Amino acid sequence: MEKKLRVGILGATGMVGQRFIALLENHPWFEVVTVAASPRSAGKTYQEAVGGRWKMDTPMPEAVKDLVVLNVNEVEKVASTVDFVFSAVDMTKEEIKAIEEAYAKTETPVVSNNSAHRWTPDVPMVVPEINADHFDVIKDQKKRLGTEKGFIAVKPNCSIQSYAPCLAAWKEFGPKELVVTTYQAISGAGKTFKDWPEMEGNIIPYIGGEEEKSEKEPLRVLGKVENGQIVMADSPKITCQCVRVPVLNGHTAAVFINFENKPSKEELIEKLVSFKGFPQEADLPSAPKQFIQYLEENNRPQVTMDVNYENGMGVSIGRLREDSIYDYKFIGLSHNTVRGAAGGAVLCAEALTAKGYIQAK
C-alpha cells in the first residue's frame, strides 16, 4: 500500500482501545492518527488521559502519547481526520448503535468491537476466515443509511472464537449438537488482577449475556446473505455455560459434539489443520499463517503455552476424542483480546481494505 490509511480509535482509553493501539503500532497499512474518548478525557494528551491505566504488556507506543484526545461525541470533527474508525466505546447499547451509525453517515467506515450491531440484519458480523462473503450485505446497508462509503461491520463475541472455527472446518460432516462450557479470562471484562483482586483463586459461574451470545452468534457467522440481510443457520443446536476464571488472557472451551455423519478422528484433525480462508489466501498482514493448530499432547492446549499462538490470532485445539454419550469431545483455546477482540477487528478491516470497501477519503 503506497500510503497508509488514517485510522481513528473510538473509546481509545479503555482496555480494547489500548489493545487496538498496541496492535496497530507499525502496521503496514494503517496508521492511528486520531484517538477519541469520553468528554472527561477530551483535550488531554493520550498519555495524560490513560494515566496509570495502561494495561498492555508492551509499552505505550511513542507515536500516540502526544495525540490530543478528541471528544468521541463530536462526530463530524473526528470523522474529518480519518479514513475509517475502530469502535470500542463504552456506552449503552442504544447509544453505541446511534453513534456508530452517525459515524457511518459521515462516509466513515466503522469496524466495531461492540455487540450493539451484531444483530442488525444488514450489518455483517465476520470471522474473516469463515464468512468474509457476508461483507456482500454492506451494499444493502449503504442503501438504508443513504451512504456511498460509510457502513458498519462488526466482529463476533470473544467467547465463540475457540470453537466456532471448528464448526466451519467440519461443515461437511454436519455438526448438529454442541454442549459447550467456556472458561473465560478476566481481561474479557476489561480487568487485570490489579483491578480485580477478588478473582485471584476464584471462579464466578455467571457472565451477564454471555451464554446467549455463545449459543446464537455462531449460527449468524455460519449463516448466509439473503435478500439484503444475514439469515442465521439452522444448525447446530448449541447450549452453553460461561464461567469466569482466574486467568488474565485466553478463553478456553470444553465442547461435546454430535454430527449428522460421524467422521473419524483423523478426518476431523485433517480438516482443522488445513482450514483456511480469505485472510490466508490474500496474505493479510495480521492473518495467522495457520489459523487452527491441533496439539497431540494430553495436557494441551494450555493458556500459558498456547494463548499467543500465531501472535494471538490463531486457535488451538486439543484432546479430541470419542465420547460415551456424544460423538466427540475436545478443548479449544483462543486469545480473547487479540483474536477475540481488537485483533479480530483489525483482521476484518484488512479484509475490507483488500476487498475495496475501505479506501482513503
UniProtKB/TrEMBL annotation:
Annotated ranges, domain Semialdehyde dehydrogenase NAD-binding: 6-138
Its EC number(s): 1.2.1.11
InterPro entries documented for this protein: ASADH-related, Asp_semi-ald_DH_pep-lack, NAD(P)-bd_dom_sf, Semialdehyde_DH_NAD-bd, Semialdhyde_DH_dimer_dom
GO molecular function: aspartate-semialdehyde dehydrogenase activity
Entry keywords, A to Z: NADP, Oxidoreductase
Similarity comment: family membership: Belongs to the aspartate-semialdehyde dehydrogenase family.
Protein name: Aspartate-semialdehyde dehydrogenase
Protein's organism: Claveliimonas monacensis
Gene: asd
